[in-house]
Amino acid sequence: MGRSLVLFSFLFMAISLSAQRSGNYASSVGLSGGYAEDGFGIMATYNYHLDRSTYAQLSIFAAIAEDKGDYDIPYNIFTVQPGCFVKVWEQPNFRRYALNIGGGGVIGYEVINNGNNILETGAVIDGKSRFIYGIYAGVEWEMILGNDLSLLIKANEYYHINSDVGNFYPYVGIGLRYFLF
Length: 181
What we know:
There is one protein chain. The chain is mostly beta strands. It has one helix at 2-22; strands at 26-36, 39-49, 54-68, 72-90, 97-112, 130-144, 149-160, 168-179. The protein has a single domain (3-180), classed as Porin, CATH 2.40.160. The protein is built from 1 helix and 8 strands. An 8-stranded antiparallel beta barrel has the order 1-2-3-4-5-6-7-8. A hairpin with a 7-residue loop joins β7 and β8. The radius of gyration is 18 Å and the shape is elongated. The two termini are 36 Å apart.
């Protein structure tokens, strides 16, 4: 799976370099915050728009959460996500609203109970902090607020292949996207 992520990263860079040669539309940055399973998540994104309907995205995601099962176990997830999104719907005429779907790879680190395998109660945690990897699928709804700014509602579903927190991990957030040029 590690080789797949490396290949995906090279593909991501090749698409970006190809778009630079063929004339690009814009780059944008975004910041969103919202619900991550068992807690709060925040995501920063950089988008390289390949044309009016496709963009390559590089995201950084952090989740601060606490599993409320038999014991309260805090955990954090930090990931980097290269991916690609495609516009599947845009409001006719005014082009004020748009819906984009996409996906890509995920690589990061999860920290369980601040790296300590023993809880305050003396219970031993079976899971451990580790590097994680996988894939994700995402949906973005965008409302244009001006020439350079848009409101963004984002939803991602992650599949972490080797996570002790859980293989499937959702994130839903709201934020802003700013177009650089």
